[in-house]
Design goal:
By secondary structure, the chain is of the alpha+beta class. The chain contains 12 helices and 19 strands. Strands 1, 2, 8, 9, 10, 11, 17 and 18 form an 8-stranded mixed sheet that branches. Strands 6-5-13-14-15-12-16-19 form an 8-stranded mixed sheet.
């Protein structure tokens, strides 16, 4: 097999890249190790920045998002039993975010790819990227019980942290920056309407809590828990009781309870691999960087990476200049590090570290009070949350 761009991974990054390339008249092949059903039910992010939503619309993949997604014009910060709303459009010149689950983004992009795009091979396991430093990279993969080779002009690794793409970058060229947090998120899906019409980020002496949603009828909620927590160790009523404590306010707001359909624990970590390019191999999304979910940046960073690559390749095709492709890593990393900074700030602002001192507790409250009382501080949060510019 031969193609211009070999894409490893059919998550939102790989699928969006395939769509962007198709619209630009550039052929690609997508290899995905899992089956279609797994990809379409894999629960991950649910917040789309303004720029990500705009890119999906421009790519022809925004119709159902605009019909079924939930536009949010702000978030609520909750601390010391007080509530403060951050108004995104008023602070950012009109920007907002969209609540639309990654599963739904993938469903939309898969349907478009199968109907209009190039080959999308499920249960096609990438085994290695070979000759990445040459003009003729190859992806060795296994599909339908036999090994094959996909010859490419470019390879884009959208295959996540555990994928093979990053392993093709020589160790001597790689730098890794990472941080592991001593807590995680116990997340639940519940068949109950959300108790608030926007996301609520709560800082409490017992730990962080987040009220989110997947639809008008399904709530998504999270509790800060110690690293390594077994989600099965928490009874349903125990979870609701703890959420109620952490969301407590001085007014008459209350938390609606309902049947819990899913429990998971998400570890919290930050990771960046530099560079994001070696020869004609380009890394995108979790293959190159991971952020704690507090800042809602993971899927959006992946979208920024593939938009940057697609623009650079179109520029190369139209002008013959490799300038933008050569700058891919540097261009993406500027945005990545701003997202890492914001995600770290949000995480340390809202989570109580094990063994935190009263001094550290009061600093957190002072930081939150600063946001609630300063338009400049509030604007900085709103601009970062709604999204840094793509490339």
């Amino acid at each position: 097999m031969r193609t211009t761009v070999g894409i490893i991974g059919a998550g939102p990054a790989g699928l969006l890249l395939a769509r962007l390339l198709h619209n630009a008249g550039i052929d690609s092949v997508v290899l995905e190790s899992r089956d279609r059903a797994y990809v379409e039910r894999r629960q991950r992010a649910g917040i789309l920045e303004q720029g990500t939503a705009d890119v999906l619309r421009a790519a022809g993949a925004g119709e159902r998002m605009d019909r079924e997604g939930l536009r949010h014009d702000g978030i609520e910060l909750r601390f010391d039993r007080t509530r403060h709303r951050v108004d995104f459009p008023a602070l950012t010149g009109g920007r907002s975010v969209m609540v639309y689950a990654q599963t739904e983004v993938c469903k939309d992009l898969i349907a478009l790819q199968l109907r209009e795009g190039g080959p999308l091979l499920f249960e096609a396991e990438a085994l290695a990227v070979e000759d990445a430093g040459t003009d003729t990279p190859r992806i060795r993969f296994r599909h339908e019980g036999r090994e094959d080779v996909l010859e490419c002009s470019y390879v884009v690794g959208c295959d996540g942290f555990w994928g093979v793409a990053r392993k093709a970058i020589p160790a001597g060229l790689s730098q890794v920056f990472e941080r592991t947090y001593p807590f995680g998120w116990l997340g639940i899906l519940a068949d109950v309407p959300p108790s608030h019409d926007e996301l609520v980020y709560a800082r409490h002496d017992r730990g962080f809590a987040l009220l989110s949603m997947r639809s008008p009828a399904v709530s998504r909620l999270y509790l800060q828990v110690p690293d390594g927590t077994d989600p099965g160790a928490w009874a349903d009523e125990e979870i609701w009781d703890e959420l109620e404590r952490r969301f407590e306010t001085a007014d008459d707001w209350y938390l609606q309870r309902g049947p819990i359909t899913q429990k998971t624990v998400t570890p919290m970590r930050s990771f960046v691999h530099e560079p994001m390019r070696h020869g004609r191999l380009f890394l995108a999304g979790d293959a190159a960087h991971i952020v704690p979910p507090t800042g809602a940046k993971g899927l959006n960073l992946a979208a920024g990476d593939v938009v940057t690559f697609a623009r650079a390749l179109v520029h190369r095709q139209e002008t013959g200049s490799p300038e933008l492709l050569d700058a891919y890593s540097q261009t993406c990393l500027r945005r990545v590090w701003q997202a890492e900074r914001f995600s770290y700030d949000m995480t340390t602002l809202l989570h109580r570290a094990p063994g935190a001192t009263p001094f550290e507790d009061r600093l957190q409250l002072a930081r939150l009070e600063r946001i609630a009382s300063s338009r400049a501080a509030e604007t900085d949060l709103a601009e970062a949350y709604t999204g840094f510019p793509f490339g």
